[in-house]
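Posting this for the archive.
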Amino acid sequence: MTRQSHVQLGKNGVTENFINTLQDHFRKHDSVKVSILKGAGRDREKIREFTEEIPKRLGRNYVAKTIGFTIFLKKWRKPVR
């Protein structure tokens, strides 16, 4: 299993297809780096919304951390409380 994969979040935002793509990446990788493109929005509030929405839609075993215009997602083996 490789360490990290890279995905880009574009103007369509967090769609069902984007979530499915992330789930596919997590089958082979421990963590995924999501780069937020200009089309998705470059204000801090929008990035904060993405950071909260993505782990909720993925499930309980996922956590997110934001640095600049990048969201780092990690899947834990044990459920996060």
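The CA atoms of residues 43 and 51 lie 13 Å apart. Helices lie at 16-26, 44-58.
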